[in-house]
Amino acid sequence: MPKPKLKPEIKTESLVSAAPKWNVVVLNDPINYQAYVVMAFMNVLRIGAPEAKKLMRAIHAEGRATVWTGDRERAEMLSLELQQWHLNSLLEQDG
Amino acid sequence: MTKEARTVLTDLLRLIAPAAARVTVNRANVPAADEEIAGFWVETLTAQASEEARLLSVAFASAKGDPAVIVLPNEAQALAFLRALSAVRLALRDLVFADITDAQLESAEDLDDDSLPTEQRHALACYACFGLLQQSLIAQLNPEAFD
């Protein structure tokens, strides 16, 4: 007698979890001028002057600010580019 | 820039520019978890800072006229010059003004520079001059950057 065809029981579960986000943080420094920091943000982060100034003011007021959040590879690249502008940047895992 | 000022700046740059790359790397927060990335990171910073220090020295040495004028042929060079000035100011801060507080340095005019040794006095003048050059360059490149 032929065995009945059984539909294989397939269990699925989501293996895809959201990749962790990384923050690019810039610390205040007393050497670089504010306009220079704004220039650096405009060039590296490709943002306009108003947004760059907002970030610069946050760093000046708080001592540090997150200037970008996203995937690790891009965060590393941006942090390196900011350091090439001699800004004090570092990477932190979000959350 | 007068001839005398150019001589002082060029002499100082000859001394400090090679150290600027080292200071840049020492100050950097390099992600240490991945050895390969850390190596690439340090190499990139060193190569760029060295190249920019060279650009700065050449620009000052080849400045023409009295008062001397530095001509930067394109925006890329102007941005590199801007960054190089920052590297040299950071190197001066770390290597020459280690015993001066940030607040004193920020308001350099309040410093009693007569009490400083000649070399430190010259370095202080250069530090301020490089800052003024940066501001002047930014005003030409992107006046929007100022508040």
The biggest sheet of chain A, with number of strands, parallel, antiparallel or mixed sense and barrel status, is: 3 strands, antiparallel
Biggest interface found: A-B, 25 and 32 residues
If you average the pLDDT of chain B, what whole number results? 87
Question: Low-confidence stretches of chain A at least 5 residues in length (pLDDT < 50)?
Answer: none
Counting helices, strands and paired strands, the structural category of chain B is: mainly alpha
Largest sheet of chain B: none
Helix content of chain B: 55-70%
Backbone shape of chain A: elongated
- Count of helical regions of chain B: 5
Name the structural class of chain A: alpha+beta
Stretches with pLDDT under 50, minimum 5 residues of chain B: none
The tally of domains of chain B stands at 1
Q: What is the terminal separation of chain B in angstroms?
A: 27 Å
